[in-house]
Amino acid sequence: MTVRVRFAPSPTGMFHVGGARSALQNWIYAKQQGGVFVLRIEDTDAARNKPEWTEGILSALDWIGITRGSYEGPYFQSANAGEHRAAAARLYESGRAYYCDCTREDVQARTGSQYQGYDGYHRDLGLGPGEGRALRFRTPDEGTTVVVDLIRGEPTFENKLIEDFVIARGDGSPVFLLANVVDDMTMGITHVIRAEEHLPNTPKQQLLWEALGVKPPVWAHVPVVVNEKRQKLSKRRDKVALEAYRDEGYLAGAMRNYLMLLGWAPSGDREIVPWSVIEDEFRLDEVNLSSAFFDEKKLRAFNGEYIRALPVAEFIDACQPWLTGTDTIAPPPWQPEEFDADAFAAVAPLAQTRIAVLSEIVPNVDFLFLATPLIDEAAWTKTMKDGSAELLDDAVAAFEALESWDAESLKSTLEAVGAERGLKLGKTQAPVRVAVTGRTVGLPLFESLEVLGRERTLTRIRAARLRLV
Ligand code: GLU
Fold this sequence. Notes:
It comes from Micromonospora parva. This protein folds into 4 domains: 123 residues, 3-Layer(aba) Sandwich (Rossmann fold), CATH 3.40.50.620; 85 residues, Glutamyl-tRNA Synthetase, Domain 3 (Glutamyl-tRNA Synthetase, domain 3); 52 residues, no CATH class; 96 residues, Arc Repressor Mutant, subunit A (Orthogonal Bundle). The protein has 19 helices and 12 strands. Helix 15 packs antiparallel against helix 19 and helix 16 packs across helix 18. The chain is elongated and about 100 Å long. The structure holds glutamic acid. Glutamic acid (GLU) binds next to strand 9.
């Protein structure tokens, strides 16, 4: 039997990092089993779907390594609507489902409780199809439904506790539970790997598989991803969109490595490992049962390591979207013609060791391309103290006299200027840094001045000096 897994997102919003993790787990499982990964877009919630969300899912999957053309699909659930209706009709015709026109209020009035599920009132009343009549599945009165779950063992559900649930609405449209089963069935899915939040659906879905006469799949419900307060990551509260991380400058390699560590770890005392190790070592049945904390700080640290591991040329390439701007990334503060690729290449290795996400490249290098630096006023006030004006005067004079404009000479020159005042280098360089870059932190100062060049450096220090009059 060929293993066939699927990832079945609903295009109702940005692509959630938890979804990305499920997609990767399915992807690896298929690969390990010599199986097939199917992508199905569950687009039947017409009110909430948008085509751009589908495109977002496809491109985010592509970014993370599940590339277009390397999987089966995408299929669209809406294209299968005929099959969904046919399955509903088969269940009705075989007596496994019946029509019911009770409202929620009717059920409440009969059971005396708003919490009670459907009471089976229409089970044997023989109501035929008709406008406003929902189709309900007749669940077994006895016995249990045992779900075979690669992560959870065999969760067992008492059938008598499962209400006769709706499979098609009053307008005849099949609900998600049924559509999802019918699609899995028609697509020959053998393993359903998905988030834990679907576990309550699973006994109902398994009953549908059995009633439709097909052997149910093996299930694997992976624990949810939570924030630091152990709340399920939510798109209203947390940063969950994979696209947002991509546009901030997380590397796909770091992201997918980190996502796979949510609830699982490779052998040994390692976390940052090549993707091939994850593909070899990942075991679905080793995934932890407890919910997994999505720790953005840790992800940042991971990303920094991945950035540092890039060959410089690749780092320079990887920075390009932030140096130019794209459809989804804001343009930098300089004009395209102000950018100087050689100057950027000269400082890139210095920046590479200092940034944790690629978008941070911009504030680190903008001083090189802007005609005048963007002055951070708070940094200015904090740094420019009594004596700064004179110090800048001396720095200008000393720099003007320099024969060779190189980092080492610049450093020893400024060191000497500070020493005359009894200042350590750190204190001496702060006003110069703010004058030239506009900030108190950034790339190593003297290398920066070397690349910026004599004229521009002196102009900026003089301009700062004038502000201090
Ligand atoms: N469309 C469902 C979701 O996005 C998928 C459910 C499943 O994987 O079975 O949650």
